[in-house]
Amino acid sequence: MLLLYATRDGHSRRIALRIADRLAESGIGASPRDLAAAPLAPAELAAAPLVALVAAVRYGRHLPEAEGFLATHRSELARAPLVLVSVSLTARKLGKDTAEGNPYLRKLIARHRLKPALAAAVAGRLDYPRYRWLDRQIIRLIMKLTGGPTDPRGSFEFTAWEAVDAIAARIAELMRQAEA
25-35, pLDDT tens digit by residue? Predict the structure, then answer.
């Protein structure tokens, strides 16, 4: 299977690695690949029985490499089961942590006319010290408006790792079905 990710600060990569670890425990090999690092060969995509994409949201949109991948390979992605995992701070809130309740994930699916076998929203990490000054100020304003933490020295982990493990278990089920 293909396990791809799009990240800016590395957290989507951590989530993809956690999924890969859980899949390995189920006997399924998946090496997470950064969409920004190298283009995907069409033959790799065609040979994949399942494609999983872990994509970060930044300022209300999924990262350009995730958007570009979905736009470029829409027809190929219709052939095999597709798993979408959207990583955002919005998903830290109850109700926004589901595919139905997360506006960014709903819009991504609609924009690319996708029919994922599984779509999930996972909360990310807020790490103010790692951000550039302007990003830190913009994110602090967003957090103030949405009731989140605003301490510019703070680092806040919102990811529900048990939910990531459940996503990995569901991917393992989908892989078994795809291989059957």
Answer: 999 999 999 99
What confidence score (pLDDT) does residue 16 get?
98
Give mean pLDDT, residues 153-173: 97
0.70 surpassed by pTM: yes
Extract the tokens encoding 7: 């990240």
Joined together, the tokens standing for residue 168 give 């990995």
Contact between 88 and 124 under an 8 Å Cβ cutoff? The reply is yes
- Domain range 2-124+159-179, its CATH number among 3.30.420.40, 3.40.50.360, 3.40.50.450, 3.40.980.10: 3.40.50.360
DSSP labels for 88-126? ESGGGSTTSSSTTT-HHHHHHHHHTT---SEEEEEE-EE
* CA contacts within 13 A on the Cβ side of 167: 31
Distance CA 120, CA 86 (A): 6
